[in-house]
Give the backbone structure.
Amino acid sequence: MAVADASVPTASSSCFPTHAPLVPPVVLDGSSSHYASPPSSPSSNRILDLPPSSQPAPQAVADALKVVHDLEVDEAIDVQHELQTMQSVMHHIDLALRGETPHQIAQRETREAARQERERQRLERQLAQHEQHVQRLASRLAKQPSNVVP
């Protein structure tokens, strides 16, 4: 049975270094785990480092958390409003780039609706004229004597 010599590097010591890597590992989302915030632990909590006489009252902490929550809700509403405003501005910019204002678009749509209505009325008149022509031809044919040879 052979005993391993301590001066000879073994597979575990040469292939698998025990020191920390020089480059922090990269997480799948592209951020580096080196820059991630450290996990929160009770020992790292600043409020616990304060002497008991200077620690805030639980009600004050609850009130502060409520204020923070309300601000977060307000911020979400503000962000939604800003998004809608930005979309509206972008729409107006797009229209301006095409050389149209909302008023011009409304006028164009009104003109198009009026044009379609005039076209519909023209087609109805034309149909009525064709129907009258067919009726006149039918009555004329009915008045003519039959030229059929027996």
